[in-house]
Amino acid sequence: MLDQTIQSSLLDIRGVCRSFPKGSGVDLLVLEKVDLTIHSGEIVGLLGRSGSGKSTLLRIIAGLIAPSSGDAKCRGETIVGPPNGVSMVFQSFALFPWLTVLQNVELGLEALGVESTKRRTRALAAIDLIGLDGFESAYPKELSGGMRQRVGFARALVVHPDLLLMDEPFSALDVLTAETLRTDLIDLWIEGRLPIKSVLMVTHNIEEAVLMCDRILVFSSNPGRVAAEIKVDLPHPRNRLDPTFRQLVDSIYARMTQRAETRSPTIEGIHGTGVGMVLNHVSSNVLSGLIETLAGPPYNGHADLPVLAGSLQLEADEIFHLGEALQLLRFAQLSEGDLMLTDAGKRFAHLETDARKKLFAEHLINYVPVMGLIRRVLDERPSHTAPAARFRNELEDYMAEAQADETLKTIVSWARYAELFAYDEQSELFSLENPH
Amino acid sequence: MTVQTTSPASLGRTFLPNLWDCIALILIVGAMVLIVYGGGQTTAPLSALNITPVSLDPANLPIYALRTTMRMLLAIVCSIIWPSPLMILGTQWYILFNVIAGASAFPTDLREAAGSFHLRGWRWWIKVILPGIFPYYITGAITASGGSWNASIVAEVASWGDTRLTASGLGAYIANATERGDFPRVVLGITVMCILVTLFNRLLRRPLYAFGERRLRLG
């Protein structure tokens, strides 16, 4: 017999972990002991930065990948393969280009064995509901991004799922289209016209999460785990300019930057040398530009992250990457949702190009362990050259292949700007010779 | 201000083959051996069929051209089940490798969508994977048809020791005329082949390709 809590919840995730194999043979943990329960009638958001494992969790729930350990149950039954009563909306729409809108929408019903007249009626109803009337015989290629995602929604809704999974459904759309689609969806949800019980959505957009969700789980990265759970009690439709709304967005920003602060030292603590730090590529031009912006008015060295993101038209995720890069290089300090220039950062803003490069090089050597390592190896070798593969292997002991790629790319780009060492794309060699 | 989000180049990646590469290599070499062996088997009955020399009478040219065309179409259409006239041996690979490329390039999100909507069995084949690799099949078939016109000249006349196998067809016509140094007939044969290639191109290849591009091309 099922006990009461399991019966009343749609989805029950207990202690789910997931790891992926990595170059060095040690697995990379992307999800660590995640608990999540979803009840009827709520929209739950998984909010986190890229690489926090939130999409992986969604795929475990969709039955597309299996958890490495832990317990994932849908309506009391352990998830093995795609469960009934769960359907998914994809970031990339994932429509079949050889099927018309109507055929795409009918496909899920066909697989469920619904007979053809009933299938047609239900598909047309879903198309009607989601505002695709008149496009039934169009092929996906003929539609705009917004209309394609509407097909994605219709296809997911037509099977009348209990739980609708959405994987960053608005992030491939332009700002206006995304907002229209969000409000349309929320309107249908409030009016009770969606044939679903609950929604679980993955997003990295803080405002989107606050706008749509009743409950937000904030994920931390490396490995992904639930860092906080935030209830959003604001009534729908929500106003982005409402002070309470802004306050909530600010507090989530602050919480996510707090995470970033406590994270850096733990990575060094675990790996000792700090060589295993993942470096996200940010162009040195962008970094100098940001330092200049921060140094000038109205910020004068101190900016509120949401305000800064708004004025530079950046996503939360992007501004975090930039802020963290500056913090790593000790040109700025992130805390409580603010970004403050350090003395070195202020100095950088007022220097000429050559002096900037020198300061940048100094900070790279001092604060980015892998840069110091490469420079040391190059200095020690008589040939003053070293193959990239030598450092890639070392990086892959700590991180996945894609992250090692990104880190190497960052190393090359920053080292070129700082004129620390050179890299030859053809031979894949680092060297000390600097063509002046 | 824009943030750089270009995908990182694979710096310093090693080129050593992994376990899967080895398994794939063994499978492909195995397939090659099988086909050559299968091809060898079929030459025996062929020798009994056709030892008569090809007539160089231009009046026979239409029927020869038709035979070569049919042979080629058969080679392309039937390539999935690998029957084994000699021409197929030459054209098989274009199609096989294109189809393999198509299957491995099939987008992950479509695979996931098919899985999450419970598409299985024949429905999965018909609605998902076959349309997905069809453009690649067409590309392979077009390349193969180009190759097989050339191949027909060689393939329709084959010698095995003292046995000379000749299938009557346009390729054999050109091959025989070349062998005898009959210049006007060589020109005639090549002209007919050019016309056929053009017709083939216009009537079959382009519409198929356009269909594949319009309906089935991914992304």
Helix content of chain B: over 70%
User: How many DSSP E strands of chain B?
Assistant: 2
Give the total of domains of chain B: 1
The interface involving the most residues is between: A-B, 55 and 32 residues
**Oligomer type:** heterodimer
Account of the 3D structure:
The complex is a heterodimer of chains A (436) and B (219). Chain A has 436 residues and is α/β, with parallel strands linked by helices. Chain A has 2 domains: 4-253, Rossmann fold; 284-431, Arc Repressor Mutant, subunit A (Orthogonal Bundle), CATH 1.10.10. Helices cover 45% and strands 19% of the residues of chain A. Chain A has helices at 4-8, 54-61, 101-112, 116-129, 145-157, 175-190, 206-212, 243-271, 284-295, 305-312, 316-328, 343-349, 353-367, 369-380, 388-396, 401-418; strands spanning 9-20, 28-39, 43-47, 69-74, 77-78, 86-89, 163-167, 198-203, 215-220, 225-231, 302-304, 332-335, 338-341, 385-387, 422-424, 429-431. In chain A, the strands form 4 sheets. Chain A has a 6-stranded mixed beta sheet, with helices on both faces. A 4-stranded antiparallel beta sheet of chain A has the order 2-1-4-5. In chain A, strands 11-13-12 form a 3-stranded antiparallel beta sheet. In chain A, strand 15 and strand 16 form a beta hairpin. The longest helix of chain A is centred in the middle third of the chain and has 29 residues, at 243-271. Chain A is globular and about 75 Å long. Chain A starts with a helix and ends in a 5-residue tail after the last strand. The model of chain A is unreliable at 1-7 and 259-273 (pLDDT under 50). Chain B is mainly alpha-helical and 219 residues long. Chain B has one domain. Chain B has a two-stranded antiparallel sheet. In chain B, helix 3 runs antiparallel to helix 5 (121-155) and helix 6 runs antiparallel to helix 7. Chain B is elongated. At the A-B interface, strand 6, helix 3, helix 9, helix 11 and helix 15 of A face helix 4 and helix 5 of B.
